[in-house]
Amino acid sequence: MAELMNRDEFRSALEEAIKGKSANKAPFSVAWASGKLTRAHLAKWAENHYHYVGPFADYLAYIYANTPDTYTEAKDFLLQNMYEEELGGDRHTDLLIRFAEACGTTAERVEDPDNMSPTTRGLQSWCYAVAMREHPVVAVAGLVVGLESQVPSIYRKQTPTLREKYGFTDEEVEFFDLHIVSDEIHGERGYQIVLEHADTPELQQRCLKICEIGAQMRLLYTTALYHDYVAGDLPLSELELAA
What we know:
Blueprint: H1 7-18, H2 27-33, H3 39-53, H4 56-66, H5 72-86, H6 92-103, H7 107-111, H8 118-133, H9 136-145, H10 151-164, H11 174-197, H12 201-229
Helix pairs in contact: 1-12, 3-6, 3-8, 4-5, 4-8, 4-9, 5-11, 8-9, 8-12, 9-11, 9-12, 10-11
Keywords: Oxidoreductase
InterPro entries: Haem_Oase-like_multi-hlx, PqqC-like
Pfam family, one: Haem_oxygenas_2
């Protein structure tokens, strides 16, 4: 039976659970960072991404409802995160739609759930299931540590290309600039919640497993974007990736 890890050991184990599964490794991400996608490909990303991140405040609300009142700082974080998604300045989904429109698609297409792929629908459903059914600390580990904490490292590779290769304006890529900053903060606070409240060996192991699964889910989702929308235009051989 696993023993209770101290905070440093547990933090390292959480990071290890995600390592090697970053969505940066997906061919879609590689193509994006190297400037080999078209605006039409990026529009497909936006039409899918909306349905993954659009309900993020809803996911957090389910976790908030399940979180004990004694977890004061955790509840405060979840509430603040929801506020930032929906009310704190420009709504994040509005910024995503602004980028999507700059790619050549429309708000109507972005908001239409029929335009997301089956894999995107699976990721969205997984997020809802985790938020509603898991222990709140395990849910934070999956959605905030396993998924949200990855965002800054992904967008730091992609955002410069949007400006330098594709010529998007600062206003058009505000969605990415915002999340590089905000999700670094959110990810770290998620880590601290998990480190503090996963206080049994069982909870620690559940958090480690769901972090690993969360990272796998985002990698699968991003890989599917390549196969669904890009592979016919850009073979893996042109990305120097193995099939």
